[in-house]
Amino acid sequence: MQPFDSTFLQRLRRAAGRALLGLSCSVILAPMAAIAVVPVGPLANQQITLDGTPLGSAIADRSSVPTVVYDATGATWHMWVQVADETGSTGPDLYPLRIASYRHATSPDGVAFTTAATLSFAGNPFGATIYGSSYGEPPWIYPKVSVWNGRYTLGLWTINDFFSGAPYPGVLGDYNYNMSLNDIGTSPSNASLTHLGPVGTVPGNGIYGQTAGIFGIVNGVMYYDNNSLLGRAALTDNGAVVFPAAFGTGPWQATATNAAVATPLTSLGVPDCSQPNGAYVHNSARVVDNGDGTLGFFFTLRNCSDGSRRAFQVYYMESADNGQTWGAATGIFAGAPTIGGNSLYTGISLADVAVIGGQRIVYFNAFDASNNLIVGALPPVVRPKAPPQPVPASTPASLALLGLLLFGAAAMANRRRSAARR
Description:
Layout: H1 6-15, E1 44-47, E2 49-50, E3 53-54, E4 67-71, E5 76-82, E6 102-107, E7 112-118, E8 120-121, E9 141-148, E10 151-157, E11 179-185, E12 192-198, E13 214-218, E14 221-226, E15 229-234, E16 236-237, E17 254-255, E18 259-262, H2 264-268, E19 279-281, E20 286-289, E21 295-299, E22 301-303, E23 315-319, E24 330-331, E25 338-339, E26 345-356, E27 359-367, E28 373-377, H3 396-421
Parallel strand pairs: 1-25, 2-7, 8-12
Antiparallel strand pairs: 1-28, 2-3, 4-5, 5-6, 6-7, 9-10, 10-11, 11-12, 13-14, 14-15, 15-18, 16-17, 19-22, 20-21, 21-23, 23-24, 26-27, 27-28
């Protein structure tokens, strides 16, 4: 863990009476009353594994962007991760990216995860054509799990139909280049998901066909990519609906109205893809509730020219008004981070950010010297509370001894009082 600056230490002391902060985490931001402290990313991170195998190239490249949530009630880390890759660029080559490619896994420490279940859809929603997807079940990538209306919700993104040659929106219908939501339930351990469909294509809202990833749901508001702007839309849960067969007609289970609320590239002074040496916000980013009345937005950049990673940096922006406006972007790493002692190459990319006790734990991926894609983070050590110890039962012998001690103490007190009277 990197040393804190004096400003952070002063804020930490003031907050000590309100919260106990662990110091070994990927990003720590102490709870505070008003003014934000820039998160600090540690340079030494642990390597994340699934069933003993490192996430990334050893499993599937898509496994390098898991979504992670800490469940304080069960003192357990939960991860949802894709364990398959596409096999080419034709329609059938994308079949491996369906829901059966996802695993739910758990961990006591946020580092070593064990598979708990394979995800599936309840009720076979793609047994018929819905929302115009003649492709059947679409490919799903860049997962993000959030809590929405008190229930765990898995957000997924679907690519653009570049392979069929069919007129827009291609064979993917309303799922084309759009986000969709899936209800996990009140328990993160449920693996049979209720599909809620794509986010509604509200006329003129700018979401449909314009987003490259969901960044999470906070306080009933969905955040997402909107052409490298930060999109914000209040979600409306319309209850169970019969999925339409055609695209663009509705009704949609979840609807939203779009607003672009932050310009990350402009804040960093980085040109967009319309300019030379331009960059874009990568598909996997995250907005979280900091737990202090502010929201945090974490993201990484890619080069427009070839999609390569732009820097060894995760950037952070903060909002003090529930995501309506955002402060300037800044990097969280003071130097080049490592994963499991490995130096990293070709830049880093964000996987997810989990929140535990006011601390933000950044999961990210990068390539090592052997060109293996690996995933790292530095979760804090969570020490379980010791169970209350039972009071030993009194035995006849112990009661007799206690009586003798009390009798002796009373006799001594009487002698002292008699001596005082003399």
